[in-house]
Amino acid sequence: MSAGRGHTDLWVWNDSPITLGDSSDESLLNYRFPGEPRGGHLRVVQSVGRPSDYDPASDPEVIPHHPPKQRPGTTGTWDRGGNSLYTSSMHKTQSVDYGMMLNGNRELRLDEGTVLMHPGDIVIQVGAWHEWAYPTDAQMAFDMIGAEFPGGNGNAIGNDKPLAPAAPVAGIKLNRRIVTIDRPQDGKSVIVSDGPSPDVLLDPARPGFASQRMWVTEGCPAKIVYETLHLPRNMEPKNGGTSFRVDILPPDQSWEGTVTAEDVRRHFAAMGSPQASAWHDGAKHPYLQYTATFDYCVVLEGELVLLLDEEEVTFRAGEVALLKGVRHAWSNRSQARAVIAISSHEGRR
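Predicted structure:
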């Protein structure tokens, strides 16, 4: 933490699968940054924007760029300097990170390429060198997952080629997905892709709905690869893995009363998890689901109501729900669309 930034840890886990069904608050666990090889953590990072009269010469936190070295007091984190009050160091962690832009703007700097992130943008940091600059006040959520670094350098492995972004969908604004990685030939960090997710699933029974799959980890530690969306869809990952998606939910009033049990069955089958449907007579919501997963749910836009067996809780943009394998549904009772990022980790009941 510095004068220009800080963070709030929301959850910590030190092994996978994550245990479900208990009431422990594991946000209080000790952890090492970036996390255990089979663990990780969920945090929200706050950064203060650079003022117009900022003078680097009077900044007490300026550290010039330098050759790579392990960050003191840590394992799995390397540093190349470049710090200031309004810029992070150029750093690399032994992790795969799901980054979700909540509000404001952050500039993501790589060895080759710079992008400005806006609210609703997603970045998949696949063990890459990167640096953050803060042109405005901003908040960003990170789900950091322990990764495997063959050879110790964390450069890309395998031949899984990036997939082309999905074609535009009429009437639906899709979210931006940025993927970064370090090239195997020289270890330089680069942008693998920047655009809509290649994997967008619609629901004919709910016009305006879109499920955008962002990334998959097949196990824990995660692999450092160029792409994972060629793998089958599944709402319940195995082998300590994760499945990360961003769902766009139209107002319930635009479809309620017309959705049938067959529509719901078809939807969950298309999601790769027909067993996830908890539809029953008298259910609070047709798309009620029940999975053996720990779901980190971050509302990116709009307002949603979380429906549980005995409670309802309203969530607005920037708020986070942690669901430990509970039966639930998300209801959009507003007049506008809502967008939610959901990172599902394999759970053990």
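Summary: The chain has a mean pLDDT of 94.
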